[in-house]
Amino acid sequence: MMDLTRGLQALTRQVNIQTNIEQPSAALTLTRTNTLAITTAGTIITWESATRNQGFTWSGADITIPTAGYYLLSVIYASASTTAYANLLVNSVVVAQIPTSYITSTLHTLIMMRYYATGDIINVRVFPSTNTTVTVVAENSFGESPILHIAQMTGAV
């Protein structure tokens, strides 16, 4: 009987620890299921599939911030062009740029933390040196593309 009691106490502690693990208030992962033609004039990535969504609304190219706070954002894309760069737009204003890589690579990334207000609209616009395509490679694979992750780190301050 004593072993059963100790076992139940240990299980209760384990359940309590697991229930205290924090999850972000909002998190989203978007990708495409088809390649996307992009032009030298710049093309906004239209997202086609959400593989994770907790608290966000999105439609096509527009991602809407659900609540004010600091968010960690990661954008990864592969293009046939090694000299492509991209802009992060918030409410149609450029707030960050994914620069052309200093090495010859077709994989481009941006990771940044930024404060967003409730209702801000996020877009990613890609500029290749020549008309090209953004290729589709599955998430969690070599050269995954295009993938956008965003997770809320803190609430409004």
Q: What does this protein look like?
A:
The protein contains one helix and 13 strands. By secondary structure, the chain is mainly beta. It is 11% helix and 46% strand. It has one domain (23-152): Jelly Rolls (Sandwich). The strands form two sheets. Strands 1, 2, 4, 7, 10, 12 and 13 form a seven-stranded antiparallel beta sheet that branches. The radius of gyration is 20 Å and the shape is globular.
CATH fold category name: Jelly Rolls
Low-confidence stretches: none
Shape: globular
SSE class: mainly beta
Spatial separation of the terminal alpha carbons? 52 Å
CATH class: Mainly Beta
In which range does the helix fraction lie?
A: 10-25%
- Please give the number of β-strands: 13
Provide a brief overview of the structure.
The chain has one helix at 2-19, and strands at 27-31, 36-38, 43-44, 49-54, 57-59, 62-64, 69-79, 85-90, 93-98, 107-116, 121-127, 132-135, 147-152. It is mostly beta strands and 157 residues long. The protein has a single domain, classed as Jelly Rolls, CATH 2.60.120.40.
